[in-house]
Amino acid sequence: MLLLAAAGLFFLQACASTPSSPPPTPKGHPKPYRVNGNWYKPIPHAKGFTQQGIASWYGKKFHGRRTSSGEVYDMYAMTAAHKTLPLGTWVQVRRLDDNRRIVVRVNDRGPFVHGRIIDLSYTGAKELGMVGPGTARVEITALGERRETTEGETFVPVDYYSGQFTFQVGAFSNRDNAERLRAKLEQTFTNAHVVPYDRGDMVFYRVRVGRCNDLETADQYERHLARSGYPDAFIVAE
C-alpha cells in the first residue's frame, strides 16, 4: 500500500496541471491494434513517409458511419484510411500511370486487404479517375498536419512522443453522469475535466484526468490509473 501511495504521489506531481481552457480535440495515441488476426502498429510521426502500392476506395456502404478518428465518414470529403499513418495526417496521393495528384486527410484505419495501402473517399477516388476501375497504383507522400499561417498553408509532421497528454476515463451521452464521475476523480487525480464531443448524430461527454509532457511518463500514469480501478483509461494527445 505504501508503494502504491508513493507511486500515486509521483504521478500526481509528474502530471500536475494548472487551470486552463478546455483542451482541443485529441489526435489520439498510436497503440497497436488487431484486425482479422493481424496486428498493426501506427507509426509515431509522418515525417519522411512515402509508400507505393494499390489504392482502393470506399463509399455508400460506410457513408455516415463512425471512423477510427471518431469522425463521421463523409464519402464526399477529401479523406482516406491508412493502416499505420497517424490519424490527422495529410498525404499527397499520386497516381503512377498518369501522374494525377490529390491531397487527402487520413481519418480512418484500413484497407485491410492484402496488397492495398490506402482507401480513398469516393471524391478522392473520383479526382484520381479510379472510381470505375476501383483501384490504381499510387505513391503516397505524407505531408503532416495542415496549418494555416500568415504566409499561407503549410504542413507539419505529427509527433506523438512529445507534447501534452491526458487520460480518458469514460464517455457518456448524459452530461450529469459525466459530471458525477469528474467529481469523484478530482478527489484523487489532478485536472479532472469534461470535454464535449459532437459525433454528428449525438453529443458525448468525455471525462479526463491528468496531464503529462512526455509519452514515457504518460504510459506509466496510464498503468497507475489501471491499478487504481480504471483499467479502461487510455492516453490521448492534446
Number of strands: 13
**What fold name stands as the CATH topology of the largest domain?**
Barwin-like endoglucanases
Q: How many H/I helices?
A: 4
Roughly how many Å apart are the termini?
A: 32 Å
Shape: elongated
Class from helix and strand fractions: alpha+beta
Strand order of the largest sheet: 3-7-4-6-5-8
Oligomer: single chain
Q: Unreliable runs, pLDDT <50, ≥5 residues?
A: 1-29
Q: Tell me about the biggest sheet?
A: 6 strands, mixed, barrel
Number of domains: 2
What is the mean pLDDT?
Answer: 81
The CATH class of the largest domain is identified as Mainly Beta
Helix content: 10-25%
CATH superfamily of the largest domain: RlpA-like domain
Order of helices and strands: HEEEEEEEHEEEHEEHE
Structural Rg: 20 Å
Enzyme class: lyase
EC number: 4.2.2.-
Keywords: Cell wall biogenesis/degradation, Lyase, Signal
Domain SPOR: 159-238
Describe the structure.
This protein is α+β, with helices and mostly antiparallel strands and 238 residues long. The chain has two domains: 2-29 and 160-237, Sporulation related repeat (Alpha-Beta Plaits, 2-Layer Sandwich), CATH 3.30.70; 33-156, RlpA-like domain (Barwin-like endoglucanases, Beta Barrel). Helices cover 18% and strands 37% of the residues. It is built from four helices and 13 strands. It has helices at residues 2-14, 122-127, 175-185, 215-227; strands spanning 33-35, 38-40, 50-57, 79-81, 90-95, 101-108, 116-120, 136-149, 152-156, 162-172, 193-198, 203-214, 234-237. The strands form three sheets. A six-stranded mixed beta barrel has the order 3-7-4-6-5-8. It has a four-stranded antiparallel β-sheet with strand order 11-12-10-13. The chain has a two-stranded antiparallel sheet with strand order 1-2. Strand 11 (193-198) and strand 12 form a beta hairpin. The longest helix is centred in the first third of the chain and has 13 residues, at 2-14. The protein is elongated, with a radius of gyration of 20 Å. The protein starts with a helix and ends with a strand. Mean pLDDT is 81; it is low at 1-29. One of its GO terms (molecular function) is peptidoglycan binding. Residues 159-238 form the SPOR domain.
